[in-house]
Amino acid sequence: MSPPPRAIILDLGNVLVFHDNALLFRRLGTRAGLPPPEAERRLAGAGWTAANRGLVGGEGIRRDVCGALGVDLPAEEFNALWSSHFTVHEAVLPRVEGLVGRVKLVLLSNTNVLHMEWLRPRLPVLERFDHLVLSCEVGFVKPEPAIYQEALEHAGCEPHEAAFFDDIPEFVQAANALGIRGHLFTTAQAFDAQLKALGL
């Protein structure tokens, strides 16, 4: 049996917070006078990756999204809409708090500057992490190996000494390919069982 991991690396979306993209497209579409499928079609593509890589800042995201939707929203209204699809996953927060001081805690997320600006004050548990590896700050995105290496460096451990939790199978598989103990995150209850199986 393997020893307990020295580090836990957690995803953000659908782990610490839920994100309902269908709701986001519906709300943006309504504001632009477009049906949700059309709003989604217009917003699909490389723009998301550019924002997640940090190639586009907050104002650039607003311009790109508004341009795609054919509407010009003031920054305050746009920023509120752009993050209106998040809900804090309250059930998982005590589990994360319970890991503080027992392992290195690292967040590993594909995200953009506006979403992080909105989430930080609403998710104080982020202050309990040893480090946040955010794609928009490091320039890499999951499933690229470089972003996992970044997380391991901040965790100060070897791949096999870290356990990684994400809701997207492709990202879990990428972690496993590097020797990290990857696990698919589903529910807070399942997370309990996974941590117990890891010896935590």
Helix vs. strand class: alpha/beta
| Percentage of residues assigned to helices | 40-55%
Counted beta strands: 7
Which sequence of strands runs across the widest sheet? 5-4-1-6-7
Tally of structural domains = 2
Through-space gap between termini: 13 Å
Could you describe the largest sheet, including whether it forms a barrel?
A: 5 strands, parallel
Order of helices and strands: EEHHHHHEHEHEHHEHEH
Describe the structure.
- There is one protein chain.
- This protein is an alpha/beta fold and 200 residues long.
- It folds into two domains: 7-18 and 87-197, Rossmann fold, CATH 3.40.50.1000; 21-82, DNA polymerase, domain 1 (Orthogonal Bundle), CATH 1.10.150.
- Helix content is 46%, strand content 14%.
- The chain has eleven helices and seven strands.
- It has helices at residues 21-32, 36-43, 46-52, 58-69, 75-82, 93-97, 113-119, 135-138, 145-155, 169-177, 188-197, and strands spanning 7-10, 17-19, 86-88, 104-109, 131-134, 162-166, 181-184.
- The strands form two sheets. A five-stranded parallel sheet has the order 5-4-1-6-7. A two-stranded antiparallel sheet has the order 2-3.
- Strand 6 (162-166), helix 10 (169-177) and strand 7 form a beta-alpha-beta unit.
- Helix 1 (21-32) crosses helix 2 (36-43).
- It is elongated and about 55 Å long.
- The model has no long low-confidence stretch (mean pLDDT 96).
